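Much of what follows relies on a compact textual record of a protein's fold. A record is reproduced here so that you can trace the correspondence yourselves:
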Amino acid sequence: MCEDLLAEQLKSRLQNVALGDDWAEKMKAQIDIWEKDNAQSAQSFAQNLDEKIKEAETKLDKLVNAFLDGSIE
């Protein structure tokens, strides 16, 4: 009984501080924007990383070829 009363009191107090539907929708919209921004940022980061890897591979190939040709020791 006492627990039910306490639960009811907590519920009524929490309803006073609960966010309205309009705020919840605004927050969901902002979260969607953040998720899209993060996805775009991650994609851009991955593309830059791929480019750097290709550049490093090209440089490594040149060094290996120069070594094999005897240009460098």
Helices lie at 2-17, 21-69. Residues 19-69 form one domain.
